[in-house]
Amino acid sequence: MQTLFQDFRMPSNLRFGVGALATLPEEVKQWGATKIGLVSDRGLEKAGLVGRVVELLGSLSIPIVTFTEIAGEPTFRLVEQAVNHFKREQCDLVIGIGGGSALDVAKTTASLLDKSDLDPYLRRNEKIEIRKIPCILLPTTSGTGSEVTMNAIFGDEEQELKRGIVSPVLLPDLAIIDPELTLSCPPRVTASSGIDAFTHAIESYISVRATPLTKIYAEKAMKQFPHHITKAVHHGANLEARTGMCWVSTLAGVTLANAGVGAVHALAYPLGGKFHIEHGIANALLMPYVFQVIGTTCIQEMVDVAAFLQLGDYHQKPSEALNAVVDYFYQLLKQLDLPSSLAQLEVDEQSLPVLANQASKIDRLLNNTPYYLNERKILQIYQKAFRGEL
Ligand SMILES: NC(=O)c1ccc[n+]([C@@H]2O[C@H](COP(=O)([O-])OP(=O)(O)OC[C@H]3O[C@@H](n4cnc5c(N)ncnc54)[C@H](O)[C@@H]3O)[C@@H](O)[C@H]2O)c1
């Protein structure tokens, strides 16, 4: 009989706190880098955060090469560009600052910088076994948890699909989570990435790979969420709410990394691949529709989640807990000015069967969910989400 062991992985160091960015130069010094590769995106450059990091590192007199070509969610081709750019410049340390898009590029670039042929790792599912280049990640959204996960997600241009690469080497040497870096995050990104973080927590809580350890992180993330999400979206300068949401995404990222996510993500990926709908928006929109179906197989967990969200005590009437949870998220989309139907996102109805077919093949995620969603069921969920009716 095969024995299944369960690992629990985190970055080597996770530094959390307001003002923690200021410690970056002393950390960089310890690695003895001779040239730094800094990955970010155009939005972050505009918001002044790239300039702030460059200025801060200026005290070290180590040359810095930037890669800020990311506009929208990244593709394999973009990673190849970043790797080639830093190879030419002989960078020997990679820093990523940004949301999940920039961080996924940064950690993958660090992991591939010493490899000559990238194709097997990016497009042919070969696992990256070793990362030689140190990597430091600084999140500016509270959502994806990329700074604490072993995953990186990219668009595959040829196949119009989003695909994940997974390896423990994608965990950085250091994650610096400074809530001040999220203060300038726009309301729509704050809202969608915040619900994305909750999706990580709830999906990993019901995952077939969940353990008592991962459930502790998921529970804490879900309990914190309702106290901070609305304030963080509508009062972006509220540092307490931003700090709260940073804890939500960190806790949720750790549980995602170790228990995995499931059907919501599986249905969200094709929307990203074909219609370029942002990851957070797709997850937030699909969550109530997907849970309405899969939640029926985990009623006890739905009673727990309703309690974590302070929606009431459903122990005596467990079958009602699922409705309460689903309705909370459906209403939250409206409160946070997020789309609640695929039609609003201009997804065309004829494409739904194609999307369902693509989603039904994402076994890596579907197999984590304790409800087997076949293609027909997936199509029904997309159809409901298209109309925006629960
Ligand atoms: N690696 C993982 O474990 C993991 C998990 C979930 C999602 N993802 C991936 O992460 C990506 C989504 O990341 P995201 O939701 O964090 O958004 P993002 O990184 O795509 O950023 C969205 C927009 O917000 C802007 N922005 C971010 N922070 C800002 C700030 N503080 N101030 C001003 N503007 C700011 C960016 O410039 C960008 O325009 C997707 O590609 C998704 O597939 C990865």
Automatic annotation (TrEMBL):
Starting at the broadest rank, the lineage of the source organism is: Bacteria, Bacillati, Bacillota, Bacilli, Bacillales
The chain positions of domain Alcohol dehydrogenase iron-type/glycerol dehydrogenase GldA read 11-179
PROSITE patterns attached to this UniProt entry: ADH_IRON_1, ADH_IRON_2
Q: Which SUPFAM superfamilies match?
A: Dehydroquinate synthase-like
Which organism is the protein's source? Answer: Ammoniphilus resinae
Where does the Fe-containing alcohol dehydrogenase-like C-terminal domain start and stop, copy by copy? 190-386
Q: Which Gene3D superfamilies match?
A: 3.40.50.1970, Dehydroquinate synthase-like - alpha domain (1.20.1090.10)
Q: Superkingdom of the source?
A: Bacteria
The similarity annotation says: Belongs to the iron-containing alcohol dehydrogenase family.
Q: What is this protein called?
A: Alcohol dehydrogenase class IV
Keywords (alphabetical) are: NAD, Oxidoreductase
